[in-house]
């Protein structure tokens, strides 16, 4: 907050980790959709298809894919020529803010290419998530009792909530019409997407943990009882 400059290498590193974590998050949400599909549509084969070893392999693939995508896009962006102002109108080295500082004939094509890669990866993961939920909903509708349908669907609520939040803010950043938002609003949306969404994820998923909910309730009861006394 006091030293508002950043070196070229540090800026590239910051962008690499931003891309890596963003893509990895999307890949993990896709894998979690597959996990819900297997649990609901093939419950008898769940322990075989989603063994601890298989889960570790899938998570490793998510991190590897996110790292490769992050490295590729970061190298492409930082091979551009930057001239003129070196003031980034953002709270961090965000790709769209940085591309505005680049110059040269290839800048427009690189900008379009980066946006297309990000949108394709995000929409590809979203398509597979939606596809998994098509099969999940079909399997839930075949459950005879309403209580059974509600109980089964409730296991997907946390994941669906994170998917809606994650892709909602991502669409505002990458799919919004050009020039429809001010620079400050773009920075605010990017901050929400990169900070607020990952912060919410563990909280939302933890709310289904009965032990955690009971601990939170006990904590609130003790706090209110101490205040009232």
Polypeptide structure, described:
- The chain has a single domain, classed as Rhopdopsin 7-helix transmembrane proteins (Up-down Bundle).
- The two termini are 41 Å apart.
- The model has no long low-confidence stretch (mean pLDDT 81).
- It is mainly α.
- A two-stranded antiparallel ribbon has the order 1-2.
- The chain is globular and about 65 Å long.
- 76% of the residues lie in helices and 2% in strands.
- It contains nine helices and two strands.
- Residues 1-205 form the G-protein coupled receptors family 1 profile domain.
CATH superfamily: Rhodopsin 7-helix transmembrane proteins
Described by strand count, sense and barrel closure, the largest sheet is:
2 strands, antiparallel
What CATH calls the topology is: Rhopdopsin 7-helix transmembrane proteins
Oligomeric form of this entry? single chain
What amount of the residues lies in strands?
Answer: under 5%
Tally of alpha and pi helices: 9
Mean pLDDT across residues: 81
Shape: globular
* Spatial strand order of the main sheet: 1-2
Q: Please trace the helix and strand order, writing H or E for each element.
A: HHHEHEHHHHH
As residue ranges, the low-confidence spans are none
Spatial gap, N to C terminus: 41 Å
Structural class: mainly alpha
Give helix % range.
over 70%
Can you tell me the CATH architecture? Answer: Up-down Bundle
The Cα radius of gyration reads: 21 Å
Count all strands and give the number.
2
| CATH domain class | Mainly Alpha
Can you tell me the number of structural domains? 1
